[in-house]
Amino acid sequence: MSAVSIKSYELQHVLPHIRAARTGGPERIELDGELVAVTSVRLQTFAFKGTRCVSCGIEGLRFRKVRTHPSDTRPHINLYAAGQSDLIEVLMTKDHIIPRARGGSDALSNMQTMCFRCNERKGSSMEPDRLSSGPST
Length: 137
What we know:
By secondary structure, this protein is an alpha+beta fold. It has one domain (4-126). It contains 3 helices and 7 strands; from the N terminus they run βαββαββββα. It has helices spanning 11-22, 41-49, 116-122; strands at 4-10, 28-31, 34-37, 60-67, 76-82, 89-96, 111-115. The strands form 2 sheets. Strands 1-4-5-6-7 form a 5-stranded antiparallel sheet. Strands 2-3 form a two-stranded antiparallel sheet. Helix 1 (11-22) packs across helix 2 (41-49). It is globular. The chain starts with a strand and ends in a 15-residue tail after the last helix. Mean pLDDT is 86; it is low at 129-137.
């Protein structure tokens, strides 16, 4: 089932809160009266590694507060890029540089930003041209 979108937020409205959470700031922020967690490694990847897909270059432009299912009580936020038209959005994801299937960790230093399409295409392969230049925490 696809996510039910509640509202969009500009990058500059959300990214500072994600960065602050890593350095002792609040673990949840209020977005239009609802608390949303901002401590996930996925969100930290966007905040510290960037919002552009390392493979195709598409850039995440806005966060959306969503519920995966209408009965979900807590929303979460996803990052989306504009597709080939403004009517199509592409979900941005975190990618394990060294895939977990090959012994890679869940640490931020092993993450990079990829769009959903490129991440699906990459799978559990290790493509040298997509590896980041070094660890970043």
